[in-house]
């Protein structure tokens, strides 16, 4: 046990006055020898990454030789923490959530083999606490208004656990040497100025909770807005600086008394006492500053991205930091100030630091000389794949002086990769606007019954329309001279001879008027169609003579019932709201969810014409079920459902036609494909035979659904199907 200034009392009210210092210093941690003579084996870092297919537990030895090693993977998980590693790096726990409980697994770090499996109440691993010897681990059960808060104490060797009711307002501090679980209560003082902490002890053997009258033998709890170290006799918290603005970090001696300021900073995200009990790490935005309790200070970490999380190794000799915007892990050696960025060679959706097992110094070169390279994109080879005309792909190349629009037609090849079958002559847009808003917007709209592609370029002050013939021909669309300078939501008429769009203009009264515009290519003038009632959104063409328009749904004050979509005749502005009879022509239903059921609705507050489709998997949207959209026939539904191995793409045929009294209780789904990965964005096209799939690391693939074979597509491209235009949009 470390010796601090703690006294044997139950309620602790404390304070120390310390000034920060900008002196540069290196802080040699207490504990293992960090001298140059120590064997250069380096620390071991455990972290988890969520990539496109799984959450993976990674071991990285910073010994100058070892590459990253995947200990174990779990595919049936989404965002959030899946893993937690014991103090010695010998065992890891994994949590796989279910609808009502969770599977808790222990795996061997050495082999990745499952040691035991059990089911427990929902209890995340984020704030799990291990006993110092790794024999026990405590988890917080997710409580509710109906269920009292509980702690699980799990025997790490067997998986057997006990449940204990604990007070609602406690935090888990840690295990004491005798195996008791120490709980911490924050106690604001009656005067609103002083604060303190009370400690309780949960005895697992006796199943009792008692108030402690002496300081427990536990260290800090790696807290957030506050942290307490009973062994060092101090607590710290952050408060608003009422005088100078910003935040103050205060230190409270656990022996009693008011707090005094340790540091004044612009803002505070977290305060964490180091395991040696000599100071506190203060994180804010992209920086971590360490302030000792004797007043000296040093910046431990600064970076370019916001800090997501940080934690100490058990002996305080290393600090591990993860960043937010670009997932990255950095390990800082306190004795020398050296830092190592742990490389990630492929894109990840999430990176969470788990544990640093330290006690040894970094070698001169902590990383191996040769690191694995990112997975290369395969080059096209072989004949073109039959059954697909390909996709059009567009992007805007931006430099300080130029914005250039590029469009290509891509087709998959039998040997892998996508072949550039045709490339549009580049469109030079000139330099970016000042101030630079990051534009312009690019849309690609294949022309019905043609090889042409409409290239729509939208900027804040104007929009331009070009037509590419799919080969070498490119020219501006032959729109009338009075076509509005700024338009949006362009859509082809079904015959490909005219365009519709949304536009706006200022009125004499100084207001802004929204209208629809229609023009036949090559005509001398534009037809303007005023908005009728609240139907102010262009959804596309309903027929060769009618637009499909959407209701500008409001959140309150909408009088009466209304259809979500309507038909607006171009010739005489006649508006007809959609009815159930229109379902046979094109998709018009708004899709919602009612528990595990899918609800198709045409009228806002009238369920009489709704179609309720029982979930094809038993899962609801909270478990990952999602309607992709309507299939190529305009009547069937495409649904994606996560599974233990990936994501199923299901087809529910004609739910409106098969429903009885507005319900389809036996959807009889047909599985079109099982795709690797979860949290996918899926767009199905080409007659429901192909899909464009974006995974959670933003990698894009063209996927043939019949066999799941995929072809990678460059990121950040605007894509459109060449031979499958969504019904109702043209």
Shape: elongated
In quaternary terms, these chains amount to single chain
Helical content (DSSP H or I, runs of 4+): under 10%
| Whole-angstrom Rg | 31 Å
**How would a crystallographer describe the biggest sheet?**
5 strands, antiparallel
Mean pLDDT metric? 89
Beta content comes to 35-45%
Structural class: mainly beta
Contiguous runs where pLDDT drops below 50 for at least 5 residues: 1-38, 725-730
Q: What's the helix count?
A: 1
| Total count of strands | 58
Question: CA-to-CA gap between the ends?
Answer: 74 Å
How would you portray this structure in words?
By secondary structure, the protein is mostly beta strands. A hairpin with a 2-residue loop joins strand 22 (279-284) and strand 23. The radius of gyration is 31 Å and the shape is elongated.
Q: What distinguishing features does this structure have?
A:
730 residues; mainly beta; 5-stranded antiparallel β-sheet; disordered N terminus
Quick overview of this protein structure:
By secondary structure, the protein is mainly β. The protein contains 1 helix and 58 strands.
Lay out the secondary structure.
Elements: E1 11-13, E2 44-50, E3 55-61, E4 69-74, E5 83-85, E6 91-97, E7 102-108, E8 114-120, E9 129-130, E10 136-141, E11 150-155, E12 161-165, E13 170-175, E14 181-188, E15 195-203, E16 208-211, E17 226-229, E18 234-240, E19 247-253, E20 260-265, E21 270-273, E22 279-284, E23 287-292, E24 297-302, E25 307-312, E26 318-323, E27 328-333, E28 339-342, E29 350-357, E30 391-398, E31 403-412, E32 418-423, E33 427-430, E34 441-446, E35 453-458, E36 463-468, E37 474-476, E38 487-492, E39 498-506, E40 512-520, E41 527-530, E42 537-541, E43 546-550, E44 565-569, E45 575-577, E46 590-594, E47 597-601, E48 611-613, E49 626-630, E50 637-642, E51 647-652, H1 655-658, E52 663-664, E53 670-675, E54 681-685, E55 690-694, E56 700-704, E57 710-713, E58 718-721
Parallel strand pairs: 48-52
Antiparallel strand pairs: 1-15, 2-3, 2-29, 3-4, 5-6, 6-7, 7-8, 9-10, 10-11, 11-12, 13-14, 14-15, 15-16, 17-18, 18-19, 19-20, 21-22, 22-23, 23-24, 25-26, 26-27, 27-28, 30-31, 30-58, 31-32, 31-33, 34-35, 35-36, 36-37, 38-39, 39-40, 40-41, 42-43, 43-44, 44-45, 46-47, 47-48, 49-50, 50-51, 51-53, ...
């Amino acid at each position: 046990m470390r010796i601090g200034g703690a006294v044997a009392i139950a309620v602790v009210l404390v304070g120390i006055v310390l000034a920060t210092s900008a002196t540069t210093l290196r802080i040699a941690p207490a504990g293992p020898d960090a001298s140059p003579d120590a064997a250069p084996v380096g620390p071991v870092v455990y972290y988890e990454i969520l990539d496109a297919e799984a959450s993976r537990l990674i071991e990285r030895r910073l010994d100058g030789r070892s590459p990253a090693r995947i200990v174990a993977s779990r595919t049936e998980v989404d965002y959030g923490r899946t893993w937690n590693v014991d103090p010695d790096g010998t065992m890891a726990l994994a949590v796989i959530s279910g609808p009502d409980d969770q599977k808790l697994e222990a795996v061997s770090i050495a082999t990745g083999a499952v040691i035991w499996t059990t089911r427990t109440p929902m209890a995340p691993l984020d704030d799990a606490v291990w006993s110092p010897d790794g024999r026990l681990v405590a988890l917080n059960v997710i409580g509710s208004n109906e269920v009292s808060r509980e702690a699980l104490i799990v025997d790490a060797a067997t998986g057997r656990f006990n449940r204990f009711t604990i007070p609602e307002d406690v935090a888990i501090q840690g295990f004491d040497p005798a195996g008791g679980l120490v709980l911490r209560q924050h106690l604001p003082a009656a005067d609103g100025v002083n604060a303190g902490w009370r400690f309780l002890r949960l005895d697992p053997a006796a199943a009792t909770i008692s108030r402690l009258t002496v300081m427990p033998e536990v260290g800090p709890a790696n807290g957030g807005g506050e942290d307490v170290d009973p062994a060092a006799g101090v607590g710290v918290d952050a408060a608003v600086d009422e005088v100078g603005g910003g935040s103050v970090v205060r230190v409270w001696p656990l022996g009693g008394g008011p707090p005094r300021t340790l540091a004044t900073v612009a803002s505070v995200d977290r305060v964490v006492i180091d395991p040696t009990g000599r100071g506190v790490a203060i994180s804010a935005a992209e920086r971590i500053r360490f302030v000792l309790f004797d007043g000296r200070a040093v910046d431990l970490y600064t970076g370019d991205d916001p800090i997501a999380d940080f934690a100490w190794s058990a002996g305080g000799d290393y600090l591990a930091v993860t960043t937010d915007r670009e997932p990255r892990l950095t390990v800082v050696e306190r004795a020398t100030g050296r830092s190592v960025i742990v490389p990630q060679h492929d894109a990840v959706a999430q990176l969470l630091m788990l544990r640093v097992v330290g006690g040894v110094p970094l070698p001169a070169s902590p990383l191996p000389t040769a690191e694995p390279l990112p997975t290369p994109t395969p080059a096209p080879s072989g004949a073109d794949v039959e059954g697909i005309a390909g996709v059009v792909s567009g992007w805007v190349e931006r430099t300080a002086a130029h914005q250039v629009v590029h469009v290509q037609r891509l087709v998959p090849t039998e040997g892998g990769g996508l072949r550039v079958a045709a490339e549009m002559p580049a469109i030079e847009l000139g330099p970016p606007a000042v101030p630079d808003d990051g534009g312009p917007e690019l849309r690609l709209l294949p022309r019905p019954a043609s090889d042409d592609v409409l290239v729509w370029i939208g900027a804040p002050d104007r929009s331009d329309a070009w037509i590419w013939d799919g080969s070498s021909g490119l020219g501006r669309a032959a729109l009338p001279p009075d076509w509005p300078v700024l338009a949006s939501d362009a859509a082809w008429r079904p015959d490909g001879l005219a365009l519709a769009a949304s536009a706006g203009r200022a009125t004499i009264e100084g207001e802004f008027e929204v209208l629809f515009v229609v023009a036949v290519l090559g005509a001398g003038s534009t037809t303007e169609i005023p908005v009728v009632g609240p139907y102010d959104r262009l959804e596309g063409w309903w027929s060769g003579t009618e637009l499909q328009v959407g209701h500008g749904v409001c959140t309150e004050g909408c009088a009466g019932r209304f259809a979500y979509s309507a038909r607006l005749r171009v010739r005489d502005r006649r508006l007809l709201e959609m009815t159930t009879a229109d379902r046979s022509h094109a998709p018009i239903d708004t899709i919602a969810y009612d528990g595990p059921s899918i609800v198709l609705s045409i009228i806002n507050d009238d369920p009489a014409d709704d179609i309720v489709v029982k979930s094809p998997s038993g899962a609801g949207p909270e478990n990952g079920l999602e309607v992709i959209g309507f299939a190529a026939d305009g009547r069937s539904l495409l649904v994606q459902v996560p599974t233990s191995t990936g994501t199923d793409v299901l087809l529910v045929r004609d739910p409106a036609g098969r429903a009885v009294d507005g319900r389809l209780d036996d959807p009889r789904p047909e599985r079109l494909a099982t795709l690797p990965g979860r949290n996918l964005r899926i767009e199905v096209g080409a007659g429901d035979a192909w899909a464009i799939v974006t995974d959670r690391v933003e990698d894009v693939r063209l996927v043939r659904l019949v066999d799941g074979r995929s072809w990678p597509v460059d990121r950040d491209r605007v894509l459109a199907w060449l031979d499958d235009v969504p019904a109702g949009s043209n």
